[in-house]
Write a structure and sequence with these properties.
Elements (H helix, E strand, L loop, with lengths): L3 E3 L3 E4 L4 E7 L7 E8 L6 E6 L6 E3 L7 E6 L4 E6 L8 E11 L13 E2 L3 E6 L1
Parallel strand pairs: 2-11
Antiparallel strand pairs: 1-3, 3-8, 4-5, 4-9, 5-6, 7-8, 9-10, 9-11
Length: about 130
């Protein structure tokens, strides 16, 4: 079982940067693939990025490739999402998520593949 707590999101101007953090409880964090999702008003939660349990591989939705970087510090049980070159369409509530499968070799993009979720944090990008 994993508990996930996200840091405060924040606001940025178009072209600016923000970094999100997600703190996980328990040593099992080091065994789990992790992901970031986001949900804009009136829309479904959508996949943003995922990272392998050991950090050796990542996967991004096309709209954030080259702008966002997912990373993790297993020694600190913390997941990060560095967001650069922000656009208004990045405005959403962002959620971190954990895949309960231990040492799983695949990176999932579907919501149903993740078992634990953070509380969500608001990111607002203005012009």
């Amino acid at each position: 079982q994993v508990q996930l707590v996200e840091s405060e999101g924040g606001s940025a101007q178009v072209g600016g940067s923000l970094r999100l953090s997600c703190a996980a409880s328990g040593r099992t964090f080091t065994m789990n693939n992790m992901g970031w999702f986001r949900q804009a008003p009136g829309k479904e939660r959508e996949f943003v990025a995922a990272i392998l349990w050991n950090g050796e591989s990542t996967w991004y939705t096309e709209s954030v490739k080259g702008r966002f970087v997912i990373s993790r510090d297993n020694a600190k049980n913390t997941l990060y999402l560095q967001m650069n070159s922000l656009k208004p369409e990045d405005t959403a509530v962002y959620y971190c998520a954990a895949d309960a499968r231990r040492y799983y070799s695949g990176l999932a993009t579907a919501r149903a593949s993740y078992d634990y979720w953070g509380q969500g944090t608001q990111v607002t990008v203005s012009s």
